[in-house]
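#struct-help
A.M.: can someone run this one for me? Single chain, 749 residues.
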Amino acid sequence: MRLSLRFLLPLALVLAGLAYAVIPLVDTLTLKWFVRDLEMRSNLIGRMVEGPLVDLLASDSKTKLLNYFHRIIQDERLFAIGFCDRDGKLAYKTLTYPDSIPCDGTGTLKAGQTSLLRLTQGDVHISSVGIEGNGRTWGRLMLVHDMSWVQRRSSDTKWYLFYLFAVIGGVISLVTVLVAHLSWRGWVAGVRAMLRGEGLAAVTGDQRPDAELHPVAQDLRALIHDLEADKRMRDENQMSWTPATLKNILHDHLAGDEVLIASNREPYIHNWQDQQLEVQVPASGVVTALEPVMRACSGVWIAHGSGSADREVVDARSHVRVPPDNPAYEIRRIWMSPEEEAGYYYGFANEGLWPLCHLAHVRPIFRSSDWHHYKDINQRFAMAIIEEAKTDNPVVLVQDYHLALVPKIVRDHLPHATIITFWHIPWPNPERYAICPWYRDILEGLLGSSILGFHTRFHCSNFIDTVDRSLETRIDRDGSTISHQGKLTAVNHYPISIAWPGREMAQLPPVSECRTRIRTSNTLSSAHRVGVGIERLDYTKGILERFLAVERLLELQPEWIGRFSFVQIAAPSRSKIEEYQQLNRQVLASAERINARFGREGYRPIHLHIEHHEPQDVSTYYRGADFCIVSSLHDGMNLVAKEFVAARDDEQGVLILSQFTGSATELPEALIVNPYNIDQCAAAMHLALTMPPTEQRARMRSMRGIVQEFNVYRWAGRMLMDAARMRQRERIVRQTGARDGRAITGGRT
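D.P.: on it. Structure tokens below:
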């Protein structure tokens, strides 16, 4: 007991002295942090209200402006608002604005400056934000924040520190007494052994002390290496996501690792066009995101060779180097006969899995012949990956529902590979998924993945529930992992997006010219209002429901007849499938019926274009329309919504978005609708056509910020960073296991 007190009393004194010194320092630092937070907050508020405030100042409406100020100060931390005009006069203020804060004189704050002031009610923080707009400076917005919450937080922090030091003191005391007790017992045992003549061998077990410490040192070095690696993996929210960012991730975290990609669609297609060889780059978000990865690591992209000239340009191993102007990586093309493509692609993938996973009321069709082709083609893709792998632990990215069996086949041959599979369409609930006769085979195939990605958390939950009902597995729902046959699969959500900025944006004409172009090409007047819908001709996109909404709009709001037209661009898709042929006929008939009902000479309410459009033409429609509607009946994400937002750098235009798309959770500022509710969709169209420019700007500005931050490079980068972390852990586990095996063998010897 006396020995313990000798340790504990000095420890208590040291901790008390540290607490006495640290608490005032923490109090000062806490105040600085909160002041900095208020400065950032004031600047953010100033930028957010600048547009609407300029409009109100220009209208010189004092009542509206004061009402606007009162709505802003509903924030519990914002105490008062004042506005100083260019002449240094306090033009507008809320009732709580202190008279001791001047707009002119020596004590006034210039734009961008901040200050602390003590009032009778307590301390306040004052920030002066310059307001500019319409080519002129309007004055300064004075934001006054209440600082009482800072004082409460500071008091709470002091108590937290007091409790922290008390807990630390207790833990250290307990550990100190325990270690001292154990050390004393060990020393006594050693002395007794030496007195009995047994020596240190009896204590150490015939091992040298340095041999015992060697594994501890290795563990410590591994821990330090892991911590340094995690530190280098910067917080993704602080990164600017560009193609260069993906290259940096590869160089920093996957340096020297082999990367292979497998997808049904190839990034470059070679076709014959009037006896001339033409290279086509498909408009695909996956290609946009993953090609920088391929360029950086000189990997191999394995894909179906579907172009009419694809066979003529490959070498004996079915390889071709791309891009043609500056080759940086290779495509390995997979060949199929027309019968195989019909069974694998048009049959099982798009007549079976596609309607199975989309709640669009189309019956999935499963044929055993299609399943056999699907298995054969998946085996062909997997063996190509195995043949192309130069190491036993490549990073393999498998894309979409066409290749669901590939991960397990690759895992069986390359057990150390890191396999990332992304499922680009929704995952249904367990009851619906069980319709598929071979549902267990598909689940086992996907669980060969190291990481399995979906667009939304909801789809991840559906997949985990499906596995739970279908297979013998161990599931960690908190960690979102599935253990099957000794292999662990992480199920994560990675919302896909578009490139920002897009390649076409720099070459597009101004919005005014785009408005003129799309009206001229559809023989409409310059003042005519236009809504657009742009997608593949697919039964999941809700095109028929959209036309019914246009019809209902003209019934309820007849003033739009002759003044509004809807332009539908529908790219032909999967025209070999009967459901798509029938949809084509229904869409044409619906457009003709509505045009016959409401049209007249020189006017059609619906302009239907069932044809392919180049990306630049599509962007022109985005920029020139008054609104864009995405009325999908079910969609994993839907990138049309994000493309429309990205195209509107004028911050105008309205997005009408189905609640059954993944994008609806990311873009709440859109007009969210149920596409089955025709009246609601018609009302949304009317609201879009009558929405004030200020509201359009506020909604569009917010959505553009989201799309810019969560772009397609972030989608790919997050998967690669997760893969890098997983590979680091696996390397440490393998090294530790090998070391432990050597230690056990040595001990037995």
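A.M.: thanks! The CA atoms of residues 279 and 324 lie 8 Å apart.
D.P.: also worth noting: The two ends are 44 Å apart (CA to CA).
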